[in-house]
Write a structure and sequence with these properties.
single chain, mainly alpha, 9 helices
Length: 267
């Protein structure tokens, strides 16, 4: 579910460079896209449709030009599904209908503007709000980490990268903290994904030299040391042990009395 997030810097590049040339069939397909079916807060249904299918085409061609048998990976498809769900936030009443319309175009019309495409055995779907928020957090964590790395290797001192890196490290720290707090409500898969990010980020601290000298001096460069999820689990175990102790005594005391009574009778 969360696997695509660690490639968020790559997908940000896809978002930026998706439209290499105008594809008239995409333009025509999306011009007929009804705003009654899909409504978006900050963009028209036609523009969202174009953005989606230009990204779809870009991702497909990235593999297809290298191997004509290849197509989008499952992670690519998960990213597109995530991207569409982010755009649909706040439109719960129409989200399912809108996603169905995108699936219809993928299955019925995508061959018109994407050559040699092979369909994946999965459909776009509506992501529940809790999982979507977690995806946004993890996606942003990996993207922010890459921005920190870029500054650490940038020896260009023409601008104050220290303040920029300070902003990135604070954002990373805050998002990680928010993500861990979300895990107190469950989301075991997200917790595992966050711990993988933590391990990846710690390797940045321990193994990568800050050649720019702009980042590692920041107070929030290190992630929080305490694991609030693990601490919460330990507290629950302690409460269970404490609350169960009187019950154990209720069974043990009569048993001890019975053993003592039998011993006295035998004597």
């Amino acid at each position: 579910m969360y696997g695509f997030c660690n490639n968020s810097p790559y997908y940000e590049m896809v978002i930026e460079k998706k439209k290499k040339e105008v594809v008239q069939k995409i333009e025509d397909t999306c011009k007929a896209f009804s705003s009654n079916v899909c409504s978006f807060e900050n963009s028209s249904a036609e523009n969202i449709c174009k953005d989606f299918f230009y990204m779809y085409k870009y991702l497909h061609e990235y593999y297809y030009l290298r191997d004509f048998k290849s197509t989008l990976t499952n992670e690519d498809f998960d990213f597109l599904n995530y991207w569409l769900n982010v755009k649909l936030k706040g439109e719960n009443s129409k989200a399912s209908t809108c996603v169905d319309e995108f699936n219809r175009i993928i299955k019925g019309k995508s061959e018109n503007f994407i050559s040699g495409i092979k369909k994946l055995e999965k459909d776009l779907h509506v992501i529940d709000s809790g999982n979507l928020e977690n995806m946004e957090i993890l996606y942003e964590l990996y993207n922010t980490k890459q921005k920190i790395v870029d500054i650490m290797f940038d020896l260009n001192n023409t601008e104050d990268k220290k303040e920029i890196c300070k902003g990135h490290t604070k954002k990373c720290y805050d998002n990680y903290t928010k993500g861990m707090n979300n895990c107190l409500n469950g989301y075991d898969d997200f917790y595992k994904a966050l711990k993988l990010f933590e391990r990846d980020y710690k390797s940045l601290i321990e193994e990568v030299d800050d050649k720019s000298g702009k980042c590692k001096s920041n107070d929030l460069f290190r992630l929080p040391e305490n694991d609030v999820v693990l601490e919460a689990k330990q507290r629950r175990i302690m409460r269970i042990n404490i609350s169960s102790s009187p019950l154990i005594l209720l069974f043990v005391i009569p048993l001890l009395y019975r053993v003592k009574k039998i011993t006295l009778i035998k004597v």
